[in-house]
Amino acid sequence: MAVVTDPRPGAAQDHGPSSPAARLGWLLPALVLALFALKPLGPLKDPDAYWHIVAGEHLTQTRQFVLDDPFGAATEKVWILNQWLPEVLMHGAHAAYGLPGIAWLLCLGSLLVGVAVYAACRRRSSALVSALVLAVTFVALSGSLSPRPQLVTFALAAVTTSAWLLTREDGRARWWLVPLTWLWACSHGMWFIGPVLGGVVVVGMFLERRLSLGEAARLAAVPVLSVAVGALTPVGPRLFISPFQVSGVTGLINEWQAPGLTSPGMLAALLLVAVVVVDQVVRGRGEWTVALLAVLGLVLAVTWSRTTGLAAVVLAPLAALALQRLARQNGSAVPRSERLAVLLSSGLSLVLAAVLAPVAAASPGIGPNGLDAALDRLPAGTVVCNDQADGGWLMLRHPGLRPTMDTRVELYTVERIRTYLGFVAAEPGWQDYAAQVGCTHAVLPSDASVVPAMRASGVWHLVSQTADYVLLEE
Question: Residue 472, by phi and psi: left (phi above 0), alpha (psi -120 to 50) or beta?
């Protein structure tokens, strides 16, 4: 990896090979990357992970990328499988190794995110600075490192940001970003972040007078073509409208709300923003590209909880370079010992994850697992009123049943979601929801407000229960 050095007169030199920082610094990135690989290991608690596996299985069997939902009993919109590539991979891991296979796949995906961020930072700073920024980025990402296709967005956002910053330095168009964006568009709904990053950097370079109008137009062809290839995925032009399916219901989704003021993830992302801003102030001259990317990162950090980690990924290489310049040090080449430490740490972490996964992720981390036998006895096609978080679990563990709610919120109207929320809260008229969706059974957490109301109604009767869940029959 090449390293950008500080060209200013008087900039301090890098630590010598005998300094404490040099003796320790090369090892720190490997340790942080081990954290990326091993920290997410455990039972699968993300509700989305279960239906992503089901989606991959259905796709391999039917080759349908746009379809009417065959699983939910109350979905109302077409299902667009715009994240099919990781979903097929998840299905393959689950078919071969069950839930431990998905847990290990999460460790691998999280590690690849860490490696992508590390590479983007290390190209611009020392090992010590890169490890520090990588650790802060891990905090920002900690709430988002789950077995979902969004891991692809985190990794490719780091690669794309680094590539465009290199373009800013040498003026070369990196056309390989176009096919990379095609893979991204097959993997996650936020693929458009790649072309946005490219557009921001081209505008910044033009404002910095690094480009003539013609040169800017030539570089702009990369993000333009990156958008165009989105229409060439198996989903076709529908890919462009799929993100808008969720727009009407974002107000009802926690991860699409603004993060709390004390959210560790947001504070970590804001720390990276602050480092970049301080560097620009100290340097005494603003850089349009850096400023525009910092604004983009700030917007992503504070607007939605779901994009806070993405903000940190975009800001990480800028923060690494800023810290390196603030310390008035040149960067350093990547020594063989550091490369070897990163390689060994990554490999050993994945081996350890493979050894631990069969125990750590043997059982689901969510769902009414104690009611499996009772649910298996229900006739195929039974419509079950359920907690939203358990919809994907039911789709995977009991494919013959038809849940009435799950976390594929883009398939439901606002009215249907509000009616469901009124049902679980036992608000007046809660009975209407069960009638609308046609459920004859209900599997719900014992502490759901609607459970005592259902049992007191005389219509719903207890079939089975565990400490945490009840199964009711009409």
Answer: beta
